[in-house]
Amino acid sequence: MKLAKKFMALALAAVLSVGCAFGVSADGSRTKDVTVVQEDSQVYEIIQKIEDTDGFKELKEAVPAVTDAFEKVGKGEMDMNGFADVLKTLAEEETDETLKAAIEEVIEKLDGKDFVTGFTQFKVLDSVKAVKNADGKYEVEFSVPSITDDMENIQLVCYNEETKEWTIVDPINVDKEKKTIKVALDDLCYFTIVADAKEDTAE
């Protein structure tokens, strides 16, 4: 009886450890708990419920494969391989060679990665106080509670609905102790945070 209980405890621990890897909760969904740090919260915002926005609804009509992927990633129903397959299909259908090349570059860089968060959207709240850098992007710091000390090569996968461009964005700074990321983004871009897959999730 004690042996059976011991095996049950080990099995439960294994399930919980897998479920918590890279922000996947017990119900299978991926965390969207990304917020702008307090000092910038009046200027910028992270929209976690992207499916409730008018922009998302418009995107769903225009490119349903993209919004479907966003939702499935958020629910934990799509892994990185599945997401890469969606991007491959988009690349095959893309007639603009520049956009096609950008998608193919993202696919290549996602090899060996795993999701840290589901997809959210970055929004400028105050265009007067918001400041663009030399590249025309907004530098903002996010709080990302799901960052852990052993995560390596943390990046963002971004989709700009206006330009239709997919990009991999390297953070300006990652503070694992404070669990924050500073990054330069376009207004209204959708993004998910990714990192190198751990050995047990790399396959």
Q: What is the H/E order? A: HEEHHHHEEEEEEEE
Strand content: 15-25%
The low-pLDDT segments are: 1-21
How many runs of DSSP E, i.e. beta strands?
Answer: 10
Q: Can you give the helix content as a percent range?
A: 25-40%
Q: Count the helices. How many?
A: 5
Radius of gyration: 18 Å
Terminal CA distance reads: 35 Å
Largest sheet geometry? 6 strands, antiparallel
Helix-strand layout with pairing:
Elements: H1 2-20, E1 35-36, E2 44-47, H2 54-62, H3 64-75, H4 80-93, H5 97-109, E3 113-115, E4 120-124, E5 138-143, E6 155-160, E7 165-169, E8 173-175, E9 180-185, E10 190-196
Antiparallel strand pairs: 1-5, 2-4, 3-10, 4-10, 5-9, 6-7, 6-10, 8-9
Helix pairs in contact: 2-3, 3-4, 4-5
Protein architecture, described:
By secondary structure, the chain is α+β, with helices and mostly antiparallel strands. The protein has 5 helices and 10 strands; from the N terminus they run αββααααββββββββ. The strands form 2 sheets. Strands 2, 3, 4, 6, 7 and 10 form a 6-stranded antiparallel beta sheet that branches. A 4-stranded antiparallel beta sheet has the order 1-5-9-8, with no helix packed on it. The longest helix has 19 residues.
